[in-house]
Amino acid sequence: MKRYEEIKKVEYLGPNSKEPFAFKYYNPDEVIHGKKMREHLKFALSYWHTINYSGTDMFGGDTEDKNFNEADLMKRYKAKADFAFDLMDKLSIDYYCFHDVDVYPYDPNDLKKSLKNFNEIVDYLEVLQKKHNKKLLWATSNNFGDKAFMAGAATSPNADVFALSALKVKATMDANIRLGGTAYVFWGGREGYDTLLNTDMGLELDNIAKFFTMARDYARSKGFKGDFLLEPKPKEPTKHQYDFDVATCCNFLRTYNLLGDFKVNIEANHATLAGHTFEHELRTARVNGVFSSIDANQGDPMLGWDTDQFPTNIYDTIYCMYEVIKAGGFVNGGLNFDAKTRRQSNTFEDILLAYIAGMDTFALGLRLAYKLIDDGRIDEFVKNRYDSYNHGIGLKIKENKTNLEELADYALNNPNKVTVDSGRQEYLESIINNVIFEK
Ligand code: XUL
Ligand code: CO
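A: This is the predicted complex of the input protein with cobalt (II) ion.
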């Protein structure tokens, strides 16, 4: 197999190609339903996994070296940035996402120096973005890794930590605005609890809502027009996270008057950790008008944690892209690969192969989701299934033109109408297979 350095650009060679370093389904500039594939999919590289993750797990150390032979930390982070943009070029990825601490050497004991270094790297990223014609999709502040955040950030019992969280979010928001990010993510890794015995849940929820309100007001005052995104996850690292799932986030946003500005960034592996399917979370976001962005990955059903694997399951991507299309497509959001190569896939070639696998799986998902919509059998079935709401008593319910008494009277006088047609689940599932495999 070729070495990383030998691969100049991953080209689209079509589904019959056996070339490992080629796209079989992702053809960036091919137009599908009036839009280029790269615009439908808005792929983004995740800095933390791709540029920094070195194979470490709970039981063992690094299996990959991503220090780029640079002992000097600022030089090392610039080398990492060079690598990131070179990789995006090779893969035709137009966007990237980062946490503040992914892109520069953060020193919790010297905040002033850290801010200076962050600014210097943001200058560098700005130059690279122009040179390589790449865009920032979103930035986020890592307010969970450092010891200071062990009991949460905006939900910490200590107000000084709340203030430190504000400093980090303000700096990252400034970077996001400068670099043109169209969304800003808040993932509350430690915004939850390990035991209720030491937790004032009401105060913590009020506090984090105040924090989001202040962050929004600050960003809007600086001209940010994009989406603020909560990223639901039920647990890990905390036993319970407040942003449990999309429905819980909607309730929180509605309670604290943040809907409209705030939407969600839905991660596949977080959905399954919450006991939902990926498409359930997407559908919930769609019907509540909070869909914006995706962290694409997949979990392993045999492992109960967030394995962040590159997505290769086409059923998942078909159902996902079906929801994305029905939601009107990506506007300020996109499709960020919050995924890492396995610990044993420890070469730079594997990074390319993993992205190719994930991008092709989503490209195929996009093609097949449109095929499913064009086929029309599923949509038609669902439409017909609810036809009773288009006339008679059903139409009255739909148009708020009836009441409980009239309905009771109707039911009493129409006893023979209470039969429901078959849901035909197996038939509908077979349509999906037929759409996938028909020529
Ligand atoms: C962790 C996770 C994060 C967020 C950004 O499970 O998904 O990487 O996407 O903080
Ligand atoms: Co994520």
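The first strand starts at residue 11 and ends at 12. The chain has two domains: 23-375, 378-437.
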